[in-house]
Amino acid sequence: MGNNPDNFQFQASNLVRTTQTLTYTWTNTASAANVDQSGRIDSGEATLSLRDASGQEVYSRTLTSTGTFKSSSGTAGSWRLEVRLTEVTGTLNFRVQRGT
To answer: What is the pTM of this model?
Structure first.
């Protein structure tokens, strides 16, 4: 995992039936974020949610979707990232970067 201003990276490999909620605070100097999701989930549910500095949810998507996505516009500053796992088996990999 890497948590730097404008660039957050997360990877978890070889998960087996993992149930957990992880929350991180991340500094985004822009009003939006670009999210790159890759990895492979064999079973279970995994969701990534982003809340901007005002607490408004600007992104929520299952981590079984792969590709590059953009958040809604929000407030720059300290954003909250939440990774919610329910009985997940597989590999998670995503990156959240300052939007353009």
So the answer is: 0.95
